[in-house]
Amino acid sequence: MTMPPTSIIVTYHMTTSHKLYGSWQHYLGDFLHGRLGQQQLFHNFDIASVIERAKHQHAFEYFADVQHSSLMLYRTMQPEYKSAEYLSVVKCASNRRLISRFRTGCHGLRVDTGRWADGVHLDRTDRLCLVCKSLDCVEDERHFVFDCPAYSHIRSQHLDLLQHCCTIADFMILCEPNACGGFLREGFACRKQILSV
Questions:
Q1: Could you give the CA distance from residue 133 to residue 195 in angstroms, rounded to a whole number?
Q2: Which value, to the nearest 10 degrees, does the dihedral of the CA atoms of residues 98, 100, 102, 107 take?
Q3: What is the per-residue pLDDT for 22?
Q4: pTM, entire model
């Protein structure tokens, strides 16, 4: 006797949820069990509607999470919940990855690592640039792209890229994505070299 797929999911969730806490299976089981209700789950199960409801719930939580500082920049560039253009335009996987990390605030600059590095949470104002060793400049995305003197030689090679940009959102939205990825690649390579000395 074969069970319908929905019964398998619920049975699997109910028998193993204590072992899978925090996994995608756990969250899927919670979603199916809690959001759809058991009656709706066993009758008229429509996977397309489950996926659509999960997307809407995720988008709602994404826009409602104002405490997650690493997503602040991303929200200014991506006000709608949809795929960004650069994902299909930038063919170089490493540049695409750099742009993604930069947009989401997971880039390794001190504004990012100061939240968790060495088990210490630094105030944002204390996440100073280790590259130019400034005593008053937070190493954030703006400092990295526009202000840090250590990258002035890279900026001078990309004047056409930066001339119409006033903010990081401008840099990420208005600049051609492949050129933007190239600039980030050069900047992070320079940063790595300086910090390894």
A1: 11
A2: -70
A3: 56
A4: 0.69
